[in-house]
Amino acid sequence: MGKLDGKVAVITGGSRGQGASHVRNFVEEGARVVFSDILIEEGEGLANELGENVKFVKHDVTNADEWKQVTDETEKTFGPVNILVNNAGIVVTKNFEDLSEEMYRKVVDINQVGVFLGIKTALSSMRKTGNGSIINVSSINGLRGSAGNAAYDSSKFAVRGITKSAAMEFAEYGIRVNSVHPGIIQTPMIEKEGSEELVEEMKKTIPIKRTAHPEEVSKLIVYLPSDDSSYSTGSEFIADGGITASN
């Protein structure tokens, strides 16, 4: 018996990396999953691999109409939404002097506004079930600042804030809302060619001296919509190898 048997989930940014790991783990735990991304070829490939309990939908998280299409498609295919994982996000590392307004707004639109639209759209579907769980993927940069990451840090702090607001508002509907704050994860976002030396330097800042496997974050995200976390809402769950332990 899986931890998520009988549950219907929507996961954004699910075509590769950490998002693909979430999709795989949810299916393994018995959920039926609609996952979305702008990466069509990789998304369709993953859906074909995982079979009938998975559906891929092309989706721009900054577009309210496309959010409605995702929710409608989920209800049509599997039924009302029990779980929403707002995972889609981007990173832009630039100093203030080099960070354009256009780029700042792009990061905020994807990382912050995309989460708002997801929560707002999924609410009506979740209320039909009488229970639900929303997991917003923030970052350790939503708990602390870092030089050169003004856009990313701003958006991830906002994810932490909207999580708490939604948790307070949705409790009466039986819907729990929590945020997850990963540290340095082995995904395509950091495994770029030429970044090996930088990654090795980052490992030295981690108390347990290694980066995380995507599955280690996925296991935490599986826990949050399961019955095992039934009394947790409005909280921050950190998976960072101890980086923020001294904060």
Task: Describe this protein's structure.
- There is one protein chain.
- This protein is α/β, with parallel strands linked by helices.
- It has one domain: 3-Layer(aba) Sandwich (Rossmann fold), CATH 3.40.50.
- It has helices at 17-28, 40-50, 64-77, 101-129, 150-170, 196-203, 214-223, and strands spanning 8-12, 32-37, 54-58, 83-86, 132-137, 175-182, 236-239.
- It has a 7-stranded parallel beta sheet, with helices on both faces.
- Helix 1 (17-28) links the parallel strand 1 (8-12) and strand 2.
- The longest helix is centred in the middle third of the chain and has 29 residues, at 101-129.
Notable features of this structure?
247 residues; alpha/beta; Rossmann fold; 43% helix; SDR_fam
Please give the largest β-sheet: 7 strands, parallel
CATH class descriptor: Alpha Beta
Average pLDDT number: 94
What is the count of helical runs? 7
Listing every helix as H and every strand as E from the N terminus to the C terminus, the arrangement reads: EHEHEHEHEHEHHE
Radius of gyration: 17 Å
- CATH-defined architecture: 3-Layer(aba) Sandwich
Q: Which spans of ≥5 residues are poorly predicted at pLDDT below 50? A: none
Report the β-strand fraction as a percent range: 15-25%
- Read across the widest sheet, the strand sequence of neighbours is 3-2-1-4-5-6-7
The CATH H-level homologous superfamily: NAD(P)-binding Rossmann-like Domain
The dominant shape is globular
Report how far apart the termini are.
Answer: 39 Å
**What is the fold named in CATH at topology level?**
Rossmann fold
Query: Given the helix and strand composition, which structural class is it?
Result: alpha/beta
* Helix proportion range: 40-55%
